[in-house]
Design a protein that fits this description.
Arc Repressor Mutant, subunit A, two-stranded antiparallel sheet, elongated
């Protein structure tokens, strides 16, 4: 690939894909117990830490930390109801994150994984 324009596009696609792969979403979903918290929240719909803790073996404090990380990753949202924090899965935000991931990986694919082993020239 000697064309400077193509090389610049390739570099930009790689950098964009790397940035997407550094999204907190991936860190949030890499731990089994955190995924179990997310799964339970999906089943319950809207719930506070106590309701989630009733269904899981972890302590409430551990579940709270998992929920905080999921919140920071944009996977769940939280609203206060008096002294309670009510969590729910943020479906539109998750969909948006995956759309961005697909778009950026789609931009990268011709440069790193071309069809039939042919390199983009």
């Amino acid at each position: 690939m000697n064309d400077p324009t193509q090389e610049a596009l390739r570099t930009q696609a790689i950098n964009s894909a790397i940035a997407v792969l550094d999204d907190p979403l991936f860190k949030a979903l890499q731990e089994t117990s955190r995924v179990a918290v997310l799964r339970q929240l999906m089943l319950l719909g809207r719930a506070d830490v106590g309701q989630i803790a009733e269904k899981l073996p972890q302590e409430r404090s551990v579940i709270s930390r998992h929920l905080q990380l999921l919140l920071e990753a944009g996977i769940v949202r939280m609203e206060r109801a008096g002294r309670h924090r009510i969590y729910e899965v943020d479906g539109p935000a998750i969909m948006h994150k995956f759309e961005v991931i697909l778009r950026e990986v789609g931009r990268l694919a011709p440069y790193c994984c071309p069809a039939n082993g042919a390199r983009n020239k």
